[in-house]
Amino acid sequence: MNIDKRIADDLAANGVSFVTTVPCKQLAGVIEEIDQRDDIFHIPSNKEDEGMGLCAGAWMGGKRPAIIMQNTAIGVTINTLATLIQYYRMPLPMLISYRGELREPVACQVEMAVHTKALLAQLNIPTYHFHWQKDVEELDNILKYTFMCNKPVAILTDANFWGGYGDQ
Amino acid sequence: MIRSEILKEIAPILRNQLVVCNIGIPSQELHAIDDQPTNFYMLGTMGLASSIGLGLALAQPKPVIVIDGDGSILTNLGTLPTIGNNAPGNYILMIIDNGSYGSTGDQPTYTSQRTDLAGMARAAGCARVVEVQDKDTGPALEEALSSGEATVLVVKCDSGNAKMPVITMDPVVIRDRFMKAVAG
């Protein structure tokens, strides 16, 4: 299975046509896939809160958005999630590389990993954790759920899900 | 002129356009001067008006006018390269540059000293950048609308705020009526 294409296919099948990204090495393949597709508009952001602003505007303009980013961005975007996405009740699927989990080679990444789920839980953000590649089978349902309830929803994808980071 | 005087003067131009308005006193002033369903008021999230407006302009064809401030642009400077490389012809970013953080007590921003937002916008890749004095805002805005080109309009004006009530409208109501106006 080409996991990058599978994710982009699920986004497109759910009508997601506006995707903003801030890169992570684990996400390089899916970002490249999205950038090449005609059915999804890709706009890179310089910072994740900026990206959430773009997504909020795109949604009010009639497009279904998504953001792809690293879990370190949770530290950047808490105010935006609370006062824009949640306060105005907007849907936002967040495909997040979960750095600092099993098979992580960079110690500093663990420092945000240990806070990631706690911060998302504090924000009452529905959170899913993809650890095995087969977990991607839930993505379609998660996207439907996100646009049903108009909430930000986090999909944490760790190194094991992507086939390892620094150990292969 | 201070910001509220400019907003009063351009209210007839803004009335039928999609407007994304910056957090704090700018939104309170616009709301008090001429509340319209085509106005999206930011109640929080300093810095993101330009980004919300850009997403909106990219998603649909109607013109979008963002009313932003120098302080908010400075807090989200990454927005300028994104605008410079992506903004469609229906996007107008109007920065009311009064050289101060108006909503927090008029503390000076760096644009009151050596920082030049129009120059920064140009350096970020924005092709049509216009800087005007407060009294020339209306004609410059109309010209931006008729140009059909993405425009960054920097309006230099005096620091100061009008005393206006806080917006008590529910955010979901603001958003819902705005989305209906966008689709209408």
Would you kindly provide a written description of the structure presented here, covering whatever features stand out?
The complex is a heterodimer of chains A (168) and B (184). Chain A is an alpha/beta fold and 168 residues long. Chain A has one domain (3-158): Thiamin diphosphate (ThDP)-binding fold, Pyr/PP domains (Rossmann fold), CATH 3.40.50. Chain A contains 6 helices and 6 strands. A 6-stranded parallel sheet of chain A has the order 2-1-3-4-6-5, with helices on both faces. In chain A, strand 5, helix 6 (139-149) and strand 6 (152-158) form a beta-alpha-beta unit. Chain A is globular, with a radius of gyration of 15 Å. With 184 residues, chain B is of the alpha/beta class. Helices cover 42% and strands 20% of the residues of chain B. Chain B has 8 helices and 8 strands; from the N terminus they run αβαβαβααβββαβαβα. Chain B has helices at 3-14, 25-34, 49-59, 70-75, 79-86, 117-123, 137-147, 171-183, and strands at 18-21, 39-41, 64-69, 91-97, 100-101, 107-108, 128-133, 151-156. In chain B, the strands form 2 sheets. Chain B has a 6-stranded parallel sheet with strand order 2-1-3-4-8-7, with helices on both faces. In chain B, strands 5-6 form a two-stranded antiparallel sheet. In chain B, strand 5 (100-101) and strand 6 (107-108) form a beta hairpin. Chain B is globular. The A-B interface holds A 18, 41, 43-47, 49-63, 65, 79-80, 82-84, 87-90 and B 20, 40, 42-45, 47-60, 76, 78-79, 81-82, 86, 171-172, 174-175, 178-179, 182-183.
